[in-house]
Automatic annotation (TrEMBL):
Record field: compositional bias (Basic and acidic residues): 286-298
InterPro entries reported in the protein's UniProt record: Homeodomain-like_sf, HTH_AraC, HTH_AraC-typ_CS, Tscrpt_reg_HTH_AraC_N
Cross-referenced SMART domains: HTH_ARAC (SM00342)
MF GO annotations: DNA-binding transcription factor activity; sequence-specific DNA binding
Organism field: Alkalilimnicola ehrlichii
Protein name: HTH araC/xylS-type domain-containing protein
Keyword Manganese on entry: no
Ranges for region Disordered: 278-298
């Protein structure tokens, strides 16, 4: 059955000529990645998500941590997280194939109320967990994908039910403790997540770490400790990464002026912006802009 699913996913991706990058399928927030070759290590901004590997293998790095997952395994990312990631096992004969779906915090909180499960306070801080994906998780992802060719009324009714089932199944996985902690508003990861949410929303504004610590209901020293334990970086560096990812999106969307983009994302000096952008992405922002403009002409 699993091989049939993989074959159907590859056939669908080929028929739709999907790019070899994650693609939203427009059903329950389900995204598909199919890649026929290993990919270079790429700066990626993960949103909170649940991933299931069907074939091949993928690797993610953040700080000095390396997490990988592949066929029959799943990855949980609980907060927005700047990472380096790449497909490490793929070939034309056996492409990498995987699904991902965004984490819906409202669903997690609803399930927490319904299930009233305990959270082990001894569990360490962390934003990412990986492990075996049980049959029920893979089956629910498969059924969500299969809705893609069903009538709209079926998709409207069944997709939300399957998304909730996927959240439930991942909560109950052996490595689902990280989700169970996220489901509790008073957990450390939930409090750090609130601070990360503010950094995402107000990335172009000057940062106040004291304000972030207050938002997380932590002392300044405790906030620094747990923020780094969860994200493998500091609040200041996290904001800088968010600004650079936002700038890249603007440049890829066709922004004409590098200097204007620098100011829009919160930099006071275009020179500093260009230097940090080059350090992050390996080329100056003008290259991104020029590629975008050439694509528009083509």
């Amino acid at each position: 059955m699993e091989q049939d699913l993989i074959a159907r996913v590859i056939e669908y991706a080929d028929a739709k000529q999907l790019p070899e990058t994650p693609t939203d399928l427009g059903i329950g927030g389900l995204a598909l990645l199919r890649s026929r070759t290993p990919t270079p290590l790429t700066n990626t901004l993960y949103r909170p998500l649940l991933c299931v590997g069907l074939q091949g293998r993928k690797q993610t790095q953040f700080g000095n941590r390396i997490v990988d997952y592949g066929a029959g395994e799943s990855l949980i990312v609980c907060v927005d997280l700047p990472t380096l990631s790449h497909v490490v096992d793929a070939s034309p004969e056996r492409p990498y194939v995987g699904f991902a779906i965004g984490i819906d915090l409202a669903i997690l909180r609803e399930l927490q109320i319904e299930l009233e499960f305990d959270v082990d306070a001894r569990e360490k801080d962390g934003a990412v967990a990986s492990g075996a994906a049980g049959h029920h998780v893979r089956d629910a992802m498969c059924r969500l994908f299969d809705l893609i060719d069903r009538p709209p009324v079926e998709r409207r009714v069944l997709a939300p039910l399957l998304v909730k089932e996927i959240h439930f199944r991942m909560l109950m996985e052996e490595h689902g403790g990280i989700l169970r902690r996220l489901s509790r508003p008073d957990s450390r990861i939930s409090r750090i997540s609130r601070a990360i949410g503010k950094l995402r929303r107000d990335y172009a504004q000057p940062i106040s770490v004291h304000e972030l610590a207050e938002l997380a209901s932590m002392s300044l020293s405790s906030f620094h400790e747990h923020f780094k334990a969860i994200t493998a970086t500091t609040p200041i560096q996290f904001q800088k990464d968010i600004r650079l990812f936002a700038a890249r999106q603007k440049l890829m969307a066709g922004a004409v002026s590098v200097a204007s983009v620098a100011f829009e994302v919160g930099y006071e000096s275009p020179t500093q912006f260009s230097r940090e952008y080059s350090r992050k992405f390996g080329h100056p922002p003008s290259i991104e802009r020029d590629i975008s403009q050439r694509s528009e002409v083509a």
